UniProtKB/TrEMBL annotation:
It comes from Hydrogenophaga taeniospiralis CCUG 15921. Belongs to the biopterin-dependent aromatic amino acid hydroxylase family. Coiled coil: none annotated. One of its GO terms (biological process) is L-phenylalanine catabolic process. The keyword Iron applies. Pathway: Amino-acid degradation; L-phenylalanine degradation; acetoacetate and fumarate from L-phenylalanine: step 1/6. It catalyses: (6R)-L-erythro-5,6,7,8-tetrahydrobiopterin + L-phenylalanine + O2 = (4aS,6R)-4a-hydroxy-L-erythro-5,6,7,8-tetrahydrobiopterin + L-tyrosine. The lineage of its organism: Bacteria, Pseudomonadati, Pseudomonadota, Betaproteobacteria, Burkholderiales. Fe cation binds at residues 136, 141, 182. Its cofactor is Fe(2+). InterPro entries: ArAA_hydroxylase, ArAA_hydroxylase_Fe/CU_BS, ArAA_hydroxylase_sf, Aro-AA_hydroxylase_C_sf, Aromatic-AA_hydroxylase_C, Phe-4-hydroxylase_mono. GO terms for molecular function: iron ion binding; phenylalanine 4-monooxygenase activity. Residues 1-21 are annotated as: Disordered. This is Phenylalanine-4-hydroxylase. Residues 1-298 form the Biopterin-dependent aromatic amino acid hydroxylase family profile domain.
Length: 298
């Protein structure tokens, strides 16, 4: 199956074989080693995505992109991104070879270092990602790190991740990240907009999440989201909508431990479930995933 959904698979450690020299798994981006073909792939992805995002990406994403040294012609140099990010929100971008173990990932985020894959997908894989590459990580994530609310939220997620590991509640916390930082929508004055990096960097899902009649779009509720499974292999069946990015800041001030407890006691929810208590922006007809099931059944 093809998908350009870029899963935050930091939960799947690459294993000792891939362990780099540095304990924090960082490597040099090796910017000078990118080939003309690598830059050309970036350009293809960048140009088709920037055409799609007006009217779909939230204002903060557009502004962040505008203020960063991210353009069509070459893969951005992480050092130059950090020079702009650091004075703005205290974040920097560090290169990693791909997936890193959870504790390493959380420690980076807790210290305002965003680990970005330094490799780029191949030209025949434009819409397929096994693991997040430089296009997903830089185009999708870095513009949002220019926003102070997201910047604080992702740092708190890193700190919370280290705690959740000890409490055994990582899956509940990972769902919060998934349905916000990766696949979140928000209410803007002129309609729903995307801010999640998994969709902002995806040619097909950035259209699907807002234009398709298939998925549910439901008001974000922290405990409800902690109970909700997600799809890692296809478009989401449900997108959760926050009021604005400042709502994420409220979550940085909450003790998640009691929420983990009640979320663990309550039944787990499937990705397409809609509850009577949900505040529904649009109830999906499920047509896309229904057709996929039919397709695979025959
Ligand atoms: Fe991501």
């Amino acid at each position: 199956m093809l998908t350009d959904t870029a899963a935050p698979k930091h939960g799947l450690a690459a294993g000792d074989a891939g362990r780099p020299e540095n304990a924090d798994w960082t490597i040099s981006q090796g910017w000078e080693h990118y080939t003309p073909a690598d830059h050309a792939t970036w350009k293809t992805l960048y140009e088709r995505q920037t055409k799609l995002l007006p009217g779909r990406a939230c204002d903060e994403f557009v502004q962040g992109m505008r203020d960063l040294p991210i353009g069509a012609d070459e893969i951005p140099d992480f050092r130059h991104l950090s020079e702009v990010l650091m004075p703005r929100t205290g974040w920097q971008v560090v290169a990693v070879p791909g997936l890193v173990p959870d504790d390493v990932f959380f420690d980076h985020l807790a210290n305002r270092r965003f680990p970005a894959g330094n490799f780029i997908r191949k030209p025949h894989e434009l819409d397929y990602l096994e693991e997040p590459d430089v296009f997903h990580d830089v185009f999708g994530h870095v513009p949002m790190l220019m926003n102070p609310a997201i910047a604080d939220f992702i740092q708190a997620y890193g700190q919370g991740g280290l705690r959740a590991q000890k409490l055994g509640n990582l899956s509940q916390l990972a769902r919060v990240y998934w349905y916000t930082v990766e696949f979140g929508l928000l209410q803007q004055g002129d309609g729903l907009r995307l801010y999640g990096s998994g969709i902002a960097s995806s040619y097909t899902e950035s259209q699907f999440c807002l234009d398709s009649p298939s998925p549910n779009r439901i008001r974000f509720d922290l405990e409800r989201v902690m109970r909700t499974n997600y799809r890692i292999d296809d478009f989401q069946e449900t997108y959760f909508v926050i009021r604005d990015l400042d709502e994420l800041l409220e979550f940085t001030r909450i003790d998640f431990a009691p929420l983990y407890e009640s979320a663990t006691r309550a039944p787990e929810l499937q990705p397409g479930d809609v509850l009577p208590t949900d505040q529904v922006f649009s109830r999906g007809d499920g047509s896309y995933h229904h057709a996929r099931k039919q397709g695979t059944a025959t």
